[in-house]
Amino acid sequence: MRIAALDDDALQLDLIKQATEAMGHVCHTHLNGADFLREMRRETFDLLIVDWHLPDTTGPEVVRWVRKNVGTQLPILFVTHRQEELDIVEGLGSGADDFMVKPVRIGELNARVSALLRRAYPANVGGVVEFGRYRFLSETRSIEIDGVPVELKNREYDLALFLFQNMGRLLSRDHLKDIVWGQVADVMSRSLDTHISRLRTLLDLRPANGFIVSAVYGVGYRFEAVEAQRRA
């Protein structure tokens, strides 16, 4: 998953980054609210970790901005020295999903991050996932359309599954590249575009089949289910 962390303490940020990346996530760090919100305008994330006291704003103000401009589904965790009941009430009232008091304990951080991600993005049980005509087989990393197997390369499978699992979400180009390639340097934008184009063809992603993938200028892609009336 892709995580963004905001804290004015560089040591705390480094601790959070190391802990979350040891869990297999990609973590982007920010030392002030302005840089964080600037990135939020052009990038997408799966979870946010936010401190309360910041040099240019406050954590609750950041959370309220995210809820107004990004939406209510993105999980947000407060990590702060504030621990009074009124602080917890204000933090959760601003739109955060969970509240953790510093000093950061790695085990607790891992547990809270995992719980938030598990609730927001439920894991698929049994190794087989179906979306209409499309059937994903995790053990063989293959896809069937109406029972007919489609041959995909590893990254094509990862990208296809991520798009289906995040149906309706706007996903930035860097978000998709992080998920499919990891934090590999110099992944060309056209590599992502080529993979998207191949999936459109290989999986026959068009309104008649119930799904479309659309480019969103300046941001990335959105994969959507098409309602029956729109297919006619």
Automatic annotation (TrEMBL):
What positions does the DNA-binding region cover?
A: 126-225
Per the UniProt record, the lineage of the source organism begins with: Bacteria, Pseudomonadati, Pseudomonadota, Betaproteobacteria, Burkholderiales
Q: Please state what the protein is called.
A: Response regulator transcription factor
Is DNA repair there in the keyword field? Answer: no
Species assigned in the record: Acidovorax facilis
This protein's UniProt keywords: DNA-binding, Phosphoprotein, Two-component regulatory system
Supply the SUPFAM superfamilies for this chain: CheY-like
According to the entry, every stretch annotated as the Response regulatory domain falls at: 2-117
Q: Which InterPro entries match?
A: CheY-like_superfamily, OmpR/PhoB-type_DNA-bd, Sig_transdc_resp-reg_receiver, WalR-like, WH-like_DNA-bd_sf
Q: Which residues carry this modification: 4-aspartylphosphate?
A: 51
Record SMART domains? REC, Trans_reg_C
Q: Which part of the chain is the OmpR/PhoB-type domain?
A: 126-225
| Keyword set includes Heme | no
